[in-house]
Design a protein that fits this description.
Layout: H1 2-6, H2 9-74, E1 109-111, E2 124-128, H3 131-135, E3 137-142, E4 147-151
Antiparallel strand pairs: 1-2, 2-3, 3-4
Amino acid sequence: MLISFLFSDRFRLTVLTVVRLSSLWKCVALAVGFFFVLASSIYVPSIFVNRVGIVKSLSNAKQIGLACKQYAIDNDGHFPPSLNALFPTYLSTRSVLVSPLAPGEPIGYIYTVGLTDTSATDSVLIEDKFAPKAKHKRIVVYADDSARVLNNDDDR
């Protein structure tokens, strides 16, 4: 009886159905795997791009802050009246004023006018004006030349 079943049409139909279902599941598994690989290849680099933009913005802000500090040393402790006063003596290129978080904007930083090198240490001298919108962070340089990346709800 078993031998006759193995050679019957019903057995061949059963085997073909199992093979087809097996192939279908393999295709589904392959498609799901491909989806996860594709999704991770899009998401993971975007995390690094976001962090790189924040680090680059912090670096630019620190350069501007150091230039302001040098200006203050040469001008009786007063920071410059505008960021334009830093060129070309203290900053050689205007590209440092461009925030990597908004590369199309000519000036990407907010500068607080009227501070001196004796201002309160928690006085914000420079802040990336695009960071809160783009990354929900604040990139700030204080009057004492310290710099931080803060969450939007942090003060210092």
